[in-house]
Amino acid sequence: MNTNPRRIFSGLALLLIVALCLPSSLRAADKRMITEMDLFKFVWIADAQISPDGSRVVFVRVWVNQKADRYDTALWIVPTNGGPTGEKPRQLTAGPRDGNPRWSPDGKTLAFNRSAEKEGRRLSQSESTRASVDGQRAFRNGRTTQSKADHEGQFR
Fold first, then answer.
1. CA–CA gap between residue 35 and residue 17 (Å, rounded)
2. Higher pLDDT pick, 143 / 61
3. Cα–Cα–Cα angle for 57, 133, 127, nearest 5°?
4. Is the distance from CB of 79 to CB of 55 less than 8 angstroms?
5. SS3 state at 46
6. Model pTM greater than 0.90?
7. What are the CA-CA distances from residue 146 to residues 49, 57, 84, 100, 110 (Å)?
8. pLDDT digit string (tens) for 124-141?
9. What percent of the residues of the chain are helix, what percent strand, and what percent coil, each to the nearest 5?
10. What CATH fold (topology level) applies to the domain 36-142?
11. What is the phi/psi pair of residue 10, to 5°?
């Protein structure tokens, strides 16, 4: 076995150069564990509802509001055609406490709950709200917890 010191040094130098040229994501020293601060950056969806004709999906987007120490929610809508030429999701409501979306049978309006707030504090009651899917109109139904649509597509 030939142990030429020059050959060993050249091999180690080559390994060092290759290791330094690797992207930082591949180097174990740059990896870190998740921290509690990372949780504040999470965004997720909930309560997805497919429209009666199957062309759209409305969902609740949830994110952490670190300043208010709470989860905020808003309704978003996206067409189901997808693909690179498809529309991107768009926000329907401003939140901060909108949820439980339900389609009318004709697919023209949505009913959803909006939690009332006073001075930044959530009240125990929710208001049932209706909104057109085009985002142009919203109607209050009063303080209820759930809305149901009749057979003609109107909410009661």
1. 32
2. 61
3. 95
4. yes
5. strand
6. no
7. 15, 19, 36, 8, 12
8. 556 667 777 765 555 555
9. 15, 40, 40
10. Neuraminidase (2.120.10)
11. -65, -40
